[in-house]
Write a structure and sequence with these properties.
Layout: H1 12-33, E1 34-37, E2 41-45, H2 48-62, H3 67-78, E3 87-93, H4 101-106, E4 117-121, E5 124-127, E6 129-130, E7 135-136, E8 139-140, E9 143-148, H5 152-158, E10 165-171, E11 174-179, H6 182-191
Length: 203
């Protein structure tokens, strides 16, 4: 996916005027690209628009106008875009009871190591690779960045309209599966450059 540049951004002063409409559009987009897997894990699949929104909001919040600092933000957030032939997501571990945060977060130790988070298309499963540096040996972060690289077999199933798709978490202390809705399938196909490709029904 093509990295964002300064030319893709809405200028600082103009952004404040268009922010409400831009934000509403991104909220609708994220609704199609967000999936809850069980009660405590959510994945948001990123693309250029979701990343642009994060950059615009960071520039607004920090009042960044210096070109070099804007480029720093671009460099940081562009790293979250999926590469060619990839899907990428931000994974959130969501603990709502403040008095149980440490206990429940500790139970997720190791989630970001090994084959714990996967996408399934029919009989084909691909595992997510976690970006390093978000956890320590005795502490796991609540936010992670995950990349998935589909195989040819996975893509074949993905293109089959109505074929089963799921996001799966298989951790010793947390096992959950969520069916992927058609709107998210279409977002994945677009991310992978397959939007508009002929789809066949399973049978």
């Amino acid at each position: 996916m093509k990295p964002l540049t300064k030319d893709d951004l809405i200028p600082y002063a103009e952004y404040e005027r268009v922010r409400d409409s831009f934000r509403q559009r991104i909220i609708a987009l994220k609704r199609r690209r967000r999936i809850s897997v069980g009660e405590k894990i959510t994945l948001l699949f990123e693309n250029r628009e979701t990343i642009q929104f994060q950059i615009q909001e960071m520039i607004r919040t920090e009042r960044i106008v210096d070109d070099a600092k804007v480029q720093d933000e671009l460099d940081v957030y562009n790293a979250q875009l999926p590469g060619e032939g990839e899907l990428s997501a931000t994974l959130f571990i969501e603990i709502t009871e403040s008095e149980r945060i440490k206990e429940e977060m500790d139970a997720f130790q190791g989630l970001d190591r090994g084959e714990k988070v996967a996408l399934e298309a029919g009989p084909h499963r691909i595992f997510g690779g976690f970006e390093g540096g978000h956890s320590k040996e005795d502490k796991i972060s609540a936010v992670h960045f995950v990349r998935f690289r589909p195989t040819g077999e996975f893509l074949g199933e993905l293109r089959r309209r109505g074929g089963p798709l799921s996001v799966v978490v298989a951790h010793p202390n947390y096992r959950a599966r969520a069916p992927v809705p058609e709107a998210m399938r279409q977002e994945w196909l677009q991310d992978l450059g397959l939007a508009g490709a002929a789809l066949s029904r399973p049978g």
